[in-house]
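User: Show me a protein chain along with its predicted structure.
Assistant: Here is one chain, sequence first, then structure tokens.
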Amino acid sequence: MLNIKGIDHLVLRTGQVEQMCLFYCGVLGCTIERETPPDIGLIQLRAGNALIDLVSVDSKLGAMGGGPPTNSENNLDHFCLQLMQTSEQQIRSHLKAHGIKVSEFAERYGAQGYGLSVYIQDPDGNTVELRSEIISDSS
């Protein structure tokens, strides 16, 4: 039997590499860990103990999967990023400051059991679930 520890990496094909880097690094706090030459077209972003790989659809690697994602043809349903402990208001304020539309927080089941999370969209329309051990806003 295999024991899964967490998400290792996700691969997102995109026609908007620069905007996706700005979103994942500038808004969500990822860092660029590794880049391949442009003809290969892979940028790997560090997201805690996991990686988010961005692959340009215009590159040799990205072309293997077809055209870019669209509003009706995304590459995946959603993925969830586990955040450090914070308040709902801090998450909401941070996202709104970056012009990100924020849905309502709701209790959902994930790898760590039930907890509060919120859904947002990245520049390619992929749904990102942000999940944190929420602390009281009065703390």
